[in-house]
Fold:
Amino acid sequence: MIINHGVRGSTPNPSQNYLFFGGNTPCVEIKTQKYQLIFDCGSGFSKVNFSNNLETILFISHFHHDHIQGLAFNNYDTDINKKITLTSAHSNKTVTYNNLSAYYNNPYFPVNFIEIINRFNFLDFEQVVNDFEDLNINSIDLNHPGNSSGYSIKSDNKKFCYLLDNEYEDVQEEKLINFCDHSEAIIWDGMFLESELSDKKGWGHSSIEQGIALADKIDVKNFLISHHSPSRDDKEIKDIENKISNKRVKFASENEVIEF
Ligand SMILES: [Zn+2]
Ligand SMILES: [Zn+2]
Structure:
């Protein structure tokens, strides 16, 4: 099961006209028979209910604020002894710990949250790949200022790919197709429209149109465009979606659960 807890890029937008698709910044939860896998902890992370029965792993794509700003705002209403594995292919466990500690500390935050919460088991990405080999975890380097790591997992014979944030370039096509082929679902960074891209070169995001074109070349059941611009309201997104002929392409919504 895929739950999009956050689909908005850059900054939350809880305004009335944005709530059909959702106003929270990125967080995606996958539940399998054994695992609760969480990708990024934007503001949508507050809605994650931690499972006491499943092994929970949190993957961070990169440390831009919209991908980590929710980490301190979950109520962690779960078994006091439950540990959450936290990892990133972007940086080793020490850098990951230091980045999150710096963000959740003076002068940006009132307390040293990462130490106080004492919930996270920081692991190097390579160790997570080895320790949980039944998940077939892979990562891919994306094109983003300061880099971002995309992920794929294959569990219960079903593959899921998470590709935020990425500024698509033609040279990526073959690599992305190989990485993503035969997927149940792909999360794609469609922050911009093609008409907006020329002003936003180097900002690290792709267009909706680039996603639609790539989806035609990939065997995927649900190609979910996400990281919606914080200024793109529900009507505009619905109008764009209605014109897409490939019905496997959809806009990620916080109000839709996709069976996996
Ligand atoms: Zn982002
Ligand atoms: Zn970013």
Q: What stands out?
A: The first helix runs from residue 93 to 103. The longest strand covers residues 148-155.
